[in-house]
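# nightly structure sweep
# worker-07 picked up a monomer target from the shared queue
# config: single-sequence mode, recycle default, output format = structure tokens
# input follows
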Amino acid sequence: MESSFILSIIYLLFAIAGAVFPTLANIDFMVQYGPSFDIQKFIQLANINPAAQSLSRDLIVGAGAMTVWIIVESIRLRMKHLWVILLGTFLVSFAFAAPLFLFLRERRLIELDNTVS
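# output follows
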């Protein structure tokens, strides 16, 4: 197998993990704090101590920078389905959307490489 194909599969596996693990944590949150997803309580708990604040702020800054790059890179490579990535960031998790973008990007690079060859 070609290394680009293997890399794309690795990214896809990270995307799956990025969907499953945060979803399980969100389900646990709803079990503990009520059947609806209380966003105010979620944010409060995400900032409850300095360690949680550090992780929350790290995610906000990192995800913000990566989202700008994802948009720019998608346009540059004329990638399809950018809306899936952006929607996935908010409806599933950034841990899902970023590796999914990398998977789709790698597939696009393979496609572009095959058209040049």
